[in-house]
Design goal:
Blueprint lengths: L10 H4 L11 H11 L5 H8 L3 H13 L3 E6 L2 E6 L15 H9 L8
Antiparallel strand pairs: 1-2
C-alpha cells in the first residue's frame, strides 16, 4: 500500500468511531492538508481528502479567489501560503478565524501562524 493512501483524512480520523458523517467541508479538509504541508501537490491533496484531482483543483482555486490561500511558484512546484487570520464564513461562526479551527484540528495550541 502506498504511503499516501495511509494518510487520507476521513471523518473517522478526526472523530474516532464516526463513519459516513463529516463535520468538515471539503474546503476545510483541503485547508487542513495545506496547513500540514504547504508544498504538497494537488494530486497528493486529492488522495488525502478522497476527491478527484479536478475537484481538488477547484477547491484550491476557490480558496485562492476568496483570499484564504496565496499560490506561489517555486521552480516547477507550487506551494501555498495560508492566511489564518481570515474569518470563518457562515451564519453561525461568530468572530472566529480560520486559524482557530485549523489549530484545533492540528493540535497546535490556540493559533496557526501564517
Amino acid at each position: 500500500m502506498p504511503l499516501v493512501d495511509s494518510i487520507k483524512i476521513r471523518p473517522s480520523d478526526i472523530l474516532p468511531g464516526v463513519t459516513g458523517v463529516s463535520f468538515l467541508t471539503n474546503h476545510a479538509r483541503v485547508l487542513l492538508c495545506i496547513a500540514r504541508e504547504p508544498g504538497t501537490r494537488l494530486r497528493d491533496i486529492a488522495v488525502r481528502v478522497d476527491l478527484t484531482e479536478r475537484a481538488t483543483h477547484g477547491l484550491v482555486s476557490e480558496l485562492c479567489e476568496e483570499g484564504y490561500l496565496t499560490k506561489h511558484r517555486l521552480g516547477a512546484r507550487n506551494f501555498y501560503e495560508l492566511h489564518p487570520e481570515l474569518p470563518l464564513r457562515g451564519a453561525d461562526e461568530g468572530d472566529h478565524q480560520v486559524g482557530e479551527l485549523l489549530a484545533l484540528l492540528l493540535d497546535r495550541g490556540a493559533t496557526v501562524e501564517a
